[in-house]
Queue: 3 jobs
Job 1
Amino acid sequence: MNKLGKINSLLMVGLWLSLSACYTSKIYVVRHAERLDQSADTPLSSAGLQRAQALADSLKNKNIDRIFGTKYQRNRQTAQVLCDVTGKGYEVYEPHPTEVIVKTVEKIGKQNVVIVGHSDTVLEIVKGFGVTPTKAKIESSDYDNLFVITVKKGVGGSRKTLEEKTYGAQTLP
């Protein structure tokens, strides 16, 4: 192979490596669904079980690769229907500090991820990905938020955008 052929081959390999590093992924952040009571490890109420089904219905065709939640029953039950529908396991993370789950998901890259958090961690998690939600606080009666962070990584760097949605029946105050 002549010198020009080698240069072209190296350029093609470099282009392939650059393009293979490009991707778009989504990170879905939600609070656990409605709790049965205020006990420390409460299960979901019947409304919460319905919301868990609504979450699974909303995300079942989104090519979810990983599902994270805390050790609490309400988080596990919120994610369980989605785990069943997607065939993905439930991965436990510690709710504090929120930087740990953010760093874990950032290392994953190239995958669509669901994080089930708590009223006092969801917004911190969203902000940890470098986007700014319009909400200043998740109220104790607020269960229907779905934060969708889109990560587009290209040759020139990465860009993150935030879409704020709701899912399931609206929670009454």
Note: The domain at 23-166 is CATH 3.40.50.1240 (Rossmann fold).
Job 2
Amino acid sequence: MRIATSQIYTASLKQMNTSLNNVMELQMMTSSQKKLNNPSDDPSGAALSMQLRSYSATLLTYEDNCTLGKSYLATADGALQVCSERLTSISELAEQAATETYTNVQMEDMAIELRQEMDSLFQMANTKMGEIYLFSGNDIENSAYEKSLGVTIDDSSMTHADVVSVQGSASHTVYIQMTESGTAGGTEDLDYQYSTDGGETWTTGTLLAGDTEIAAGDTSITLATGTAVTAEDGSGEGTNLYIRTAYEYEGSDDELSLAIGEDTTLGVTLAGSSVFGGIDPATGEPYPDPNLFEALGDLVAYMETGNTDGVASCIETVNDAYEHMLQQAASVGARQNTAENTATAIGITRDCSVSQISSIEDADATQLTVEMAQAEYVYEAVLSTTTSVFQLNILSYL
């Protein structure tokens, strides 16, 4: 077989370029310390690496959500702990006021202390972390509660559904007694009296025929048409209404949840309505029991009017609300543990995925050094041989 000079030159150039290409690739790997610099270097490895990177990014999002959730929950837990302490003091205060051993002046002093405790609970219910309200459900940009007026009904024949609205402003309980029996919005005038100083002094008023609004100083109550009222004759069996402080829930009944897994979410805020209760703005009526804010509203109304029996009737309700809050605090603690444990598990999994990515993409420095030395040696040898070949001419065969 005859080998032409052009074939020798072509083969020599091919070997030289191949050797140079190997050197250049190894130099690139040495510079980047990666064996996978382009998808063409290892198509299947590049595809797997992209999948692992996407998975690792998703895990990082879940891990960040766990960390954020732990912060929210820890802050909410701290607020609930403060509330529990305040409720312990309130419970002791209520038990003292129910003993019938205190004067009205002393009861009034207790009511002042109770209002201070209620203000503290109101602030805790509006706890924020940064700009996030933690007891507003998923309506995190708005405060959970606003102060308003509510009514305590001391009449077994009436419910909150009979009260259309409570209007005005009052820093002290406004005590209303019906002095005539009849029907709101009926055909006859109905007399009543009200006190703004706990029953020390009274002002009379009249609910006109066809009207449903009972005006009492700077406040008023509008009853549903047809609501039956009974005259108070001193026995406590008539219609007694107390306009007092209330708290209206402004948040959402749905919690804010963060994804901490492919099919797993974690509630990181709480719906204040399920913790503190208060007034439902959609209906104007109190949330179902145990309703802490409404129980405290009833309690302060009875304290400010010297009604020890009324105070005694609130103790069990307040204690039930306290137990409910402890359950909510325990739920928050359980969520914190879930976030902590999940973050730990995700961290381990993400470390494994990062390790897999490294095994696909990263070069072995020791092996790379050896391969680089070999490639340079081969290139130099090819280069030397090629130089000798290119120096051949016809005189070399004579």
Note: The first strand starts at residue 128 and ends at 129.
Job 3
Amino acid sequence: MPEIAMQIDIAAPRAAVLDALNTHDGLTSWWTTGVDREGDVLLFDFPGVPEPFRLRRERADRDRVLWANAGAFPPHWAGTWISWDLADQPDAPDRTRLLFRHGGWQPGSEAGVPMVAGTWAELLVRLKDYAQSGKVQPYFVTTMRHDEQ
């Protein structure tokens, strides 16, 4: 089963990276402006996509953030999970080393993995920029909620 894995060093403390991954303002600053939640399920809206991606927050602590796909959409994400493992950079305890993984791809979904990996690479750069500078630069900008269509 394929897995996307990327590591990036961020010149920001772990708390700043955690805020970017765990708060509405953080997520809307680098990923998509369409973020909502239903309890522990995060809803991510994207332009031109008929329904939100639903990711259940399984864990969110100092060392790891873990989300599991909580819906049937998009179909090629069924059964996948996303993890963000955080550690101090060697010799720089005020900086963060982030290991990102997106795994659990089902047989037959492999064809979409390279496209998803490319998007995650761009998103990680935006996450890094936001955590380091506070620069708001979401990759996806939505103008309409799904329930308003």
Note: Residues 4-140 form a domain with the Alpha-D-Glucose-1,6-Bisphosphate; Chain A, domain 4 fold (CATH 3.30.530.20).
